[in-house]
DNA sequence: GACCTGCTGCGGTATG
C-alpha cells in the first residue's frame, strides 16, 4: 500500500523525470533511503535525497495538515565537515520542500552565517539545520541550548570518514553523546534505541559518498525494517561515509559504546561504476629521472590528454607544485591563458569560489589543484582527472579519480603521472589495490584530553554540568570509553583549580563549582572560550595583497622574509613584485618578469600508506620473480635489470641492504618500503643500535622506499647484522627515546594540544597573538608540567601523539617484526643503484649551504657515479635548502 | 623554531 506521503514523493520523482535513475523500479517504495541510485539526482547530491525524502514522506503521513502546520521545531540536524557542502545541500532540500509545498525552512549555521541570521535562528528554529562540528559546539555553548534540540528526530553525520580519525571526529562524538543524553531525559521520550547508521559506500568510481547497498536483497530486507520517525520518536543517527577499510568500526565510533550493536544497520550499494586508470609511461624510460617529485618532464603527454578532454583536473601533491605546473603550462601552452585556473588552500577564498563556479559553468578547460578540490561539490563537466606524483594512498586516489565522469553509465578516467622512474611501480600497485578493493582505514582518535577539556568548558559556559552525569555520558563515546575516573577528576581539577601547578594563575581558573554545578560565571572567560572553540590549529601566515587592494591569498613568513622590495615572485599564477610588508600583509604589484621564485609551504607530511606500501612490495616481489603482467613493470624493465645487475631485486622474504663507499664516507642503504615516517624512525633507531657496537655519528636521508645512513666511520655492518637485536622490537621504546629527541617532538605536539585545551589564547580575531609568544607560552607550560607534574594528562598525550603520528610507532613495530623474519641480503655496491640514487639525492638537497642548484648537483652526481638516469631539468627549486643533516648519535 | 617536497579543514568580539 502506498501512503499519501509516498505518493507525493513519487510524484515528485516523476515530475523531475529521473529516467536515468539506476534503481528506478525500486522507486516504487519510497523508503529507499540508502540506495545509491540517487547518485544521478540532478542536484548531484543523491544521498541527501536518499535520507531526506523518506523522512519527508513520513512527516507528510503523520501530519495530513502538513501544509499549514507551523512551528515544527528542529527535526533534522545535518553535520558536515565542509561549510561549502551546507549551502549545496540546503538549496537542494529547500527546493524539494518548496516543490512539495511543505512549509519547512532549511537553514545553515556555520561561520559564514551572518550574525543577524544566527540571532534569528535562536529565536525561531528551522526544521532542518545544516552545520559543522564546530558550530554544533558553539550551539552547545549557548544558554538553554537543550531547547534547540527538543524536537530533534534525526541526526545525520555526512562525510563521516573525513572526520573519523581526527580531533574533529572526537568533537562530533562528544556532541552526539550530549544530544543523545538530551533525548533520553527530554520531555519527548527520546531514546537512541533505534538509531541507525547508514554507512554508505563510495561507488567504484569513488565520486561521491553513496548511501548504497552491497547486496540488494539484503538491503531491501533492511529497508523494510526501518522505522521512520514517529510523533514520540527516538532519535535516529545516520552516518554517511565513503568506503574505508574499517566501516564497521566507523559505525561503532559514531554511535558510541552504549549503542546496542544489533541495532546497527549497514547499507551499501553495488553500483559498479567503471573506473579506468592509466599510467603515463615516459617515452624513454632509461632517460627518465630517477629522482625528483615535480614531474614536469611529462608535461607534453599530460597536455595531449588535456587537449583531448573536455575538462581536466590536474591534482598535485603540494601547493608549490600546483604553482609550478600552472606556471609551466602558461609558459609552454600560452593558448590556455583564460581557460585554465588554479585551486589550493593558500589562495584567497574569493578566487577559489570563482574557480569552482567557473568549473560548474564549463568555462574552464583545466584546473591545477591540490586536495582542496577532492572533496565537496560535484564538478559535473570534469571528464578527466590527472594525478601528478604518487597519491600516497588508495583511498585518496579513488576520491580524486571520482571527480571525473559524473553521468549515468559514464566511465571515470584517471591518469597517473609518475614524477620519477620507480614511482611508476606505484601506479601498478594502485591499480592492483583498487582491483582488490584494498582501502586505508581511518583510525579513531582515543583519549584526546585537549578536546575533552574544551568540551567540558563549553558545557560550563552554557548551562553548566554535573560531574557524575557528564562522566557517565562521556564514557559512552568511543574516544573516551577507557577514560578513568581519576583522570576525569584531574581534568575537573584542571579547569577549576588549574591543576597542581597553575593554581596561582587566575587565567587558568575558568570554571567554578556551585552546588555541584560546574559553571563559568565570568563573561570574559566565556567569550574567550567561544572564540577558541574548534580543533584546527594553523601556523600564522602572511596575507598577500595588491597595493590597489584585493587579496590574493597567503604565504609563509619564512618565504616573504627572503624577499627584498623590488624582487619578483610567482603566486596565484601571476608574476608579482614585492613592495613592502606591513602588519602581517605583504603588498605587491603586477610584474612583467618572466621568472621569479615560487613560494613553498610547510604542510603535513604524507607517507606512503601502509596498504599501498604492502601492495607495492607485492609488486616488487613479482618483479623479482620475473612476472611481467603490468605495463608499468614492463616499462621499468631496464631499471630493474640494472638494479639486479648492480645489486639485487629483493623478493618478499628478503630484506635488501646496500653498502657503498664514497668520498663522503660509508653509505648504508636499507629498503623497508614502508613510507617516510617509519623510515625516519627506523633510521634513527638503527643508527643508535649500530653506535652501541661502534661509536659513530650518522647522517640520515630517506624517501618512501628506503633510507640511508652515512658515516665517516667504517661500520662493521656484518658484525652488526649478526646481532640478533638489530631489528628487534625489544626495548623499542627505550631505544627510540635514546635515538630521537622525543622531548622536542612532544613539545611541538604540545603546542596544538595547549591551544585546543584552551591553555593559550590565540587572540581576538583580527589581532592575533604573535606566533612567537604562543610558542613561548606553550613551551613554558610544557616545561612546567614536565617538571612538576609528571603525570600531567596533556603532556602524556603529547608524547603519545608524537609516537603515534610522527613516528607511526605501530607501523614501525610491524615493519621491524617483518624484517626480523626476512633473509638479509647485504650487497656491497660499486655505485648507487636505481633504488639508492633517489635517496642519496634526497640527502644532497639538504646537505650544506650551496650556490649550486640542485639540478646541477644531481647531474654532477650522476656523472660522477656514472648512473644512467639523470634527474631532469625539473628541479626549479626556489628554496635553497641548506641545513646540516641530522647528526649526533 | 623546525620543517626542508609535502594537503585539507573551522571558528570568531556586543547594546539599548
UniProtKB/TrEMBL annotation:
SMART domains, per database record = DEXDc, HELICc
PROSITE patterns for this protein: HELICASE_ATP_BIND_1 (PS51192), HELICASE_CTER (PS51194)
**Molecular function, one GO term:** ligase activity
Q: Which UniProt keywords apply?
A: ATP-binding, DNA damage, DNA repair, DNA-binding, Helicase, Hydrolase, Isomerase, Ligase, Nucleotide-binding
Superkingdom, according to UniProt?
A: Bacteria
Helicase ATP-binding domain residues are 28-262
Q: Where, by residue number, does the polypeptide cross the bilayer?
A: none
Q: Name one Pfam family in it.
A: DEAD
The record's similarity note reads: Belongs to the Lhr helicase family. Lhr-Core subfamily.
Query: Any idea what this protein is called?
Result: Ligase-associated DNA damage response DEXH box helicase
Organism of provenance: Mucilaginibacter corticis
Source organism phylogeny: Bacteria, Pseudomonadati, Bacteroidota, Sphingobacteriia, Sphingobacteriales
